[in-house]
Amino acid sequence: ITPPCHLPPTDPPSTPSDPPPTPTVACWCASYPNVTLCSWPEPAGSPPTRYVATYSERRTQLLTRPCRLIRPGSASSDLVPAPWASSQKLWRCQLPDLKLLTDYVLNVTAVSSAGSSSHLSSFMLEDIVKPDPPVEVRVSLPDSRNLLVEWSPPPTWTNLDIFPLKYLIRYRWEDRGSLKSVNLGPFENTRKQLKGLASGRTYLFQVCAMELLGLGACSSWSSPVEHSIPKAGPLRLPHTS
Ligand SMILES: *[C@@H]1O[C@H](CO)[C@@H](O)[C@H](O)[C@H]1NC(C)=O
Ligand SMILES: *[C@@H]1O[C@H](CO)[C@@H](O)[C@H](O)[C@H]1NC(C)=O
Question: Is 34 touching ligand 1 by the criterion CB < 6 Å?
Fold first, then answer.
């Protein structure tokens, strides 16, 4: 009796056998009500072969529309940067023509040969407003008592006339090894005079922008601008000689 013939063991499949991880998606509107993007990092290692991103109104989920995909690293002049730092490759997609005060459902699905994983989330445009930070922050000392902080609105916020912005100022300094911080505002102007800063101290100034009625969140802080208040001059004694 001959033993049954054993087939040689088959090689394990060379493709990953697990479906791709569910994308971690964040959405924000950098110019109410027109410019809304969603973004998610591409996992390192074995990225999914493709993504499918769609959105629909929550009440009538029948009409599903594609969210326009933007690959990591693609150059696009009208691209709004993500409001967070990331060393990973970021995918983005654009949601045009969102209606005001409407609940939407977003579906970002990662697809690989082993399967797919969907991220589902719902949002309302008004809740995800987050302008880009103000630009051209300037600090000057017009006289020895008052310090002047000036800035310009984020240029990506295109409907400033209809949807004005308000601003917060943060200034920080080091005090015996610990960082002290003061937040001021909101202000509707793009300049603010500050009094009572200590002479001889170095401060870091930052500004953030928020939709005037308080929709969504304040932008990220602008990059810090450093300014030192000069030491008070030596006491001037009357000239006696
Ligand atoms: C924003 O969208 C509205 C309605 O679709 C349109 O009328 C307006 O021109 C758009 N504004 C900008 C700056 O794209
Ligand atoms: C999400 O999108 C994927 C790909 O288009 C689809 O297969 C899946 O059914 C969608 N999920 C829901 C809950 O709509």
Answer: yes
